Amino acid sequence: MDRHLVSSDIATSVAEIISDLKHLEGPLLPILHAVQDTFGHIPNEAVPMIALGLNLSRAEVHGVVTFYHDYRSHPAGRHVLKLCRAEACQAMGGDRLGDRAKRRLGIDFHQTSADGSVTLEPVFCLGLCSTAPAAMLDGAVHGRLDAHGLDTLLAEVGA
To answer: If you count Cβ atoms within 10 Å of the first and of the last residue's Cβ in the chain, which end, N or C, has fewer?
Structure first.
């Protein structure tokens, strides 16, 4: 779906998502995932609609969006690179990889490169502790990542 929809299109799509998923037990997270899958982020105007549809306060919905690192309130770049920040990855050089990625992209965590190609996000465990340090690029996990491997991943996405 086009990420540059006008507000009425956003409202219509969000209303459909809420209607389709509000019957689930604990529907907030599935609704937020569906909204983000549709728009690439959680548009600000979706928060009050979700709150109303689930009989929650806007603060509750906003709190969930800002608490979980997987949700974003602004569009991501064309590619999303998540670097594991958990202890096993830190012990195996994850901090150096994070610093290298920041330098190469010219950004910090939670930011998108100036050309819009890559959003850099921290993640607190990818479940690859035995192959640390680990990263996830566009949903594909990569273990035993070193500087060369990181450079290769960035080159693959044109960064």
So the answer is: N
Residue-by-residue pLDDT tens, the chain, 159 positions: 444 444 788 999 999 999 999 999 999 999 999 999 999 999 999 999 999 999 999 999 999 999 987 899 989 999 999 999 999 999 999 999 999 999 999 999 999 999 999 999 999 999 999 999 999 999 999 999 999 999 999 999 987
Answer whether 35's CB lies under 8 Å from 46's CB. yes
Annotated binding site for [2Fe-2S] cluster: 84, 89, 125, 129
Query: From the annotation, which residues make up the binding site?
Result: 84, 89, 125, 129
User: Which strands sit side by side in the sheet containing 135-137, from one edge to the other?
Assistant: 111-112, 118-123, 79-84, 135-137, 140-142
Indicate the DSSP class of residue 59: H
- The domain 79-156 is classified under which CATH number: 3.40.50.720, 3.30.9.10, 3.40.30.10, 1.10.3210.10? 3.40.30.10
